[in-house]
Amino acid sequence: MEIVGKKRRRELGIDWSLVDISRFLLRISYIGTNYFGIAFQKDDKIPTIEGEIYKALLQLRLIKDIDSCDLVRCGRTDRGVHSAGNYISVNLRTRAKNLEPYNYMEMLNGVLPWDIRVIGYCEVRPDFSARFDCEYRLYKYFFPLNHERTKISKFPKIPPEQVPLMNVAAKQFLGTHDYRRFCKMDLKNRKNQTYIRTIYEFDINFVDENRTFAVATIKGSAFLWHQVRLMMGILFEIGQQKFNPEVITQMLTDVEQKNIAELSFQMATELGLVLWDCVFKEYDIQCNTNSLKTFLDESESLKLKASLYSFIGS
């Protein structure tokens, strides 16, 4: 059986027992509209970002198989959420040292779907983890102002004059808190989950001079499931004057709901959410502007303004 295996490897042109492998950090950008999140699903009928990346890596024979390449994502984005700067660390086949190194960005972008792009990469130490070696993650949430909610957009109507109030209210999230009331709990798979997270920055500003759009910029060590969308959801309620701003502090301090009952508010739509960047102490991958510009031009040509992705790079 082993002999057959070696014969098969020779037929493919690669003897994996002789291949040099190194670990790399890839910066990826994607529009999440057509995908069920980034996380790989064993069901091939469920399209995911990682699923498409695995297909590309296998097609190019940069990895032997899914199990051995040790692919680790930095940020987990859910269905419909976009990214301008997510990262994966993965073990890839390298070229012989006497030959010019592979251009992984060019190779992968040649076979990946148009809405997923590698926009930078670098070699990292063998034990590097895109998840655990990340210093902080940066999200941006774009939303229209004075917008009438529809079945398609799902954004609430926020008057421009309420943006400064939302910005002040958002500052209550700064620091280290228990965010169990601002996340979706996964009690089945994460019974020992800690809900303590640290937010370093939370600012809400106008995108344009006409005040037709605003953007929230959130910088934190790590984020819980749906945390950003639920934080934005309560801020939308404040922006619509349905809740007083102080409700945020009350919910952060009364995690057991002893003094303030569970509040009913809608989680913000995924349309405006973008994982903007992830920062590492050891490595700094500069974005390939040509690759990103091509990506954005394609997005614009297909009129994906509903995803608000056209604001990336502004």
TrEMBL record:
Catalytic activity field: uridine(38/39/40) in tRNA = pseudouridine(38/39/40) in tRNA
Native species: Cryptosporidium parvum
An annotated GO BP: tRNA pseudouridine synthesis
GO MF annotations in UniProt: RNA binding; tRNA pseudouridine(38-40) synthase activity
Gene3D superfamilies reported for this sequence: Pseudouridine synthase I, catalytic domain, C-terminal subdomain, Pseudouridine synthase I, catalytic domain, N-terminal subdomain
GO cellular component: cytoplasm; nucleus
Keywords of this entry: Isomerase, tRNA processing
Cited InterPro entries: PsdUridine_synth_cat_dom_sf (IPR020103), PsdUridine_synth_TruA (IPR001406), PsdUridine_synth_TruA_a/b_dom (IPR020097), PsdUridine_synth_TruA_C (IPR020095), TruA/RsuA/RluB/E/F_N (IPR020094)
Domain Pseudouridine synthase I TruA alpha/beta as annotated: residue spans: 169-280
Active site: D78
Protein's UniProt name: tRNA pseudouridine synthase
Residues annotated to bind substrate: Y139
